[in-house]
Write a structure and sequence with these properties.
By secondary structure, the chain is α+β, with helices and mostly antiparallel strands. Helices cover 23% and strands 20% of the residues. Bound molecules: protoporphyrin IX containing FE.
Length: 81
């Protein structure tokens, strides 16, 4: 992951739809979760985080505080902030 590109917050913000791609950030990492959106167990709520940080939402929905959820996320990493 240390060889992934540096991506600006501005570029992340441009990816907040299925058409343009759905990117999120988590602890300094950037993730392209476009392909995961339709598989999300919590449905379309995932789009609330599109183009920004997922931490505020995961604080509210503690179901994400599990190793297997982070495993899923790590598979979509495309860069670092
Ligand atoms: C459930 C992944 C973002 C709301 C889950 C589960 C996974 C997951 C794997 C199932 C966990 C389990 O039951 O063991 C993700 C990923 C996200 C993301 C990878 C971002 C990249 C969000 C956001 C919200 C959200 C932003 C809310 C704004 C929920 C809810 C559930 C859930 C409500 C529970 C669904 C249920 O069991 O009925 N998510 N999530 N998620 N997620 Fe997310």
């Amino acid at each position: 992951s240390s060889r992934l590109p540096i991506i600006s917050q501005e570029e992340v913000t441009r990816h907040r739809s299925l058409k343009d791609g759905v990117w999120v950030t988590y602890k300094g990492g950037v993730y392209d979760i476009t392909e995961f959106v339709s598989m999300h167990p919590g449905g379309e709520k995932i789009m609330m985080a599109a183009g920004g940080a997922i931490e505020p939402f995961w604080s509210l929905y503690a179901v994400h505080n599990q190793e297997h959820v982070l495993d899923i996320l790590s598979g979509y990493k495309v860069g670092e902030l």
